């Protein structure tokens, strides 16, 4: 990622942090509290390697916090599932805009579950969540603008 892209990503995140966001300690507690639920989901709806949300807990603690914070800061939950985007797409968005590290599909699923989002069909490989379409659109527009300046 170029320096310009990193600057744009930082500006985007700074300007779009929702008020009342959780601090690091609260996010660590959320991650810890949700482990039992995600373990149960993984047992009931088994996924192949790279797609299981329990894999989130294999990330380093700092990466776990960054991933959950990014989901909380970037997306707003809505009532209905947004079938236009999937966990696989969100993991790429994270890599593009957060100067993010590589995450597999399962790790991103875990981050969304910990952040309190619901998925549509846990039997599928790529999950859709109750994410605001306007948040995804804003992120996509920012990506397109940053690519224009390359």
Task: Write a structural description.
The chain has 150 residues and is mainly α. The chain has one domain (3-148). It has six helices and no strands. The chain has helices spanning 3-15, 24-44, 61-74, 87-97, 105-114, 133-148. Helix 2 packs across helix 3 (61-74), helix 3 packs across helix 5 (105-114) and helix 4 (87-97) packs across helix 5 (105-114). It is globular, with a radius of gyration of 15 Å. The N and C termini lie close together (10 Å). The model is unreliable at 4-20 (pLDDT under 50).
Key structural traits:
150 residues, 6 helices
Q: What is this entry, summarized?
A:
The protein is mainly α and 150 residues long. It contains six helices and no strands. The radius of gyration is 15 Å and the shape is globular.
């Amino acid at each position: 990622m170029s320096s310009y892209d990193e600057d744009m990503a930082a500006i985007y995140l700074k300007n779009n942090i929702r008020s009342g966001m959780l601090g690091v300690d609260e996010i660590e507690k959320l991650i810890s509290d949700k482990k039992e639920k995600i373990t149960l989901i993984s047992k009931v709806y088994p996924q192949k390697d790279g797609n299981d949300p329990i894999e989130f807990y294999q990330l380093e603690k700092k990466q776990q916090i960054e991933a959950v914070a990014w989901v909380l800061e970037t997306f707003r939950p809505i009532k209905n599932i947004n079938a236009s985007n999937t966990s696989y797409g969100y993991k790429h968005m994270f890599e593009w805009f957060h100067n993010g590290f590589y995450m597999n599909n399962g790790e991103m699923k875990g981050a969304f579950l910990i952040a309190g989002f619901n998925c549509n069909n846990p039997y599928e490989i790529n999950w859709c969540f109750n994410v605001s379409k306007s948040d995804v659109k804003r992120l996509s527009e920012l990506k397109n603008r940053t690519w224009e300046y390359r």
